[in-house]
Specification:
single chain; about 190 residues; alpha/beta; Rossmann fold; 2 domains; five-stranded parallel beta sheet; 5 strands; about 50% helix; about 10% strand
Length: about 190
C-alpha cells in the first residue's frame, strides 16, 4: 500500500515548460529555451552558479532581452506560475493520510520563489533540492539519498516526475515511478 509520495516540482507544482514561455512572448521560444536551460544551467541547478552570474554569460547575445526576462528572479511568478489545481489536489493528499516529499532540480532562486507562494513545510514532510545537495536528477545517487534521508520503505513509496529519464533512473533503484502528465496519473496510481 502506498504511503509515501515523492513529487517533482517543475511540470507538477509549477509550470516551467517551453509552452508557457512561448505563450508569454507570443512566439516559439524553443531555441532560446534550449540556450537558457541547456548547457551550463546545470551549475545553477547544482548550486555552484548564481542566476545573476549565469545571466552575465549571455550579455551581448541576440536573445539577451528574452533571456534576461526569463532569468529575472522577480518574474518567477510569470515564468514559473503555480499550477493551482495541481497544488490544491496535492495538498489534499496529506489530508488523506499520505506522506508527501519533494525531489526537484531547482535553483536557489526558484526555491525561494516556491517557498514564498506555498508553505513547503506545511504539506511536505521532506524535500531534497538539487541546489542544496549538489546532485540532480537523473543521477542515481539523488534517488538513493531521498530514500535514505527519510527512511522510506520502497514498497510504500511512489515517485512522480514529468521527465521520463528521471522516472527510468528512479525505477532502477527500486522506486515505483510514473511519468506525470496530469493529476489523473496520481489518482489512478493511488486507487
Amino acid at each position: 500500500m502506498i504511503k509515501n509520495i515523492i513529487l517533482d516540482v517543475g511540470g507538477i507544482i509549477i509550470d516551467d515548460g517551453l509552452e508557457n514561455i512561448s505563450k508569454i512572448f507570443g512566439k516559439d521560444m524553443s531555441i532560446v529555451y534550449k540556450k537558457v536551460y541547456g548547457g551550463d544551467f546545470k551549475y545553477c541547478i547544482l548550486g555552484s552558479l548564481s542566476m545573476t552570474d549565469y545571466l552575465k554569460r549571455f550579455y551581448g547575445d541576440s536573445d539577451y532581452k528574452y533571456i534576461r526576462e526569463m532569468l529575472d528572479p522577480t518574474k518567477q511568478e510569470i515564468f514559473n506560475p503555480l499550477l493551482k489545481e495541481n497544488y490544491e489536489y496535492i495538498c489534499g493528499l496529506k489530508g488523506r493520510g499520505y506522506h508527501l516529499y519533494i525531489l526537484s532540480n531547482l535553483t536557489k532562486e526558484t526555491y525561494d520563489y516556491l517557498n514564498s507562494i506555498i508553505d513547503i513545510n506545511k504539506y511536505f514532510e521532506g524535500a531534497l533540492f538539487s541546489y542544496e545537495v549538489g546532485l540532480r536528477k537523473p543521477e542515481i545517487d539523488i534517488f538513493k539519498m531521498i530514500i535514505n534521508k527519510y527512511n522510506l520503505d520502497l514498497t510504500e513509496t511512489i515517485f512522480f516526475d514529468d521527465k521520463e529519464k528521471n522516472v527510468i533512473n528512479a525505477l532502477s533503484v527500486g522506486i515505483k515511478s510514473i511519468v506525470f502528465k496530469s493529476i489523473r496519473d496520481i489518482e489512478n496510481e493511488l486507487n
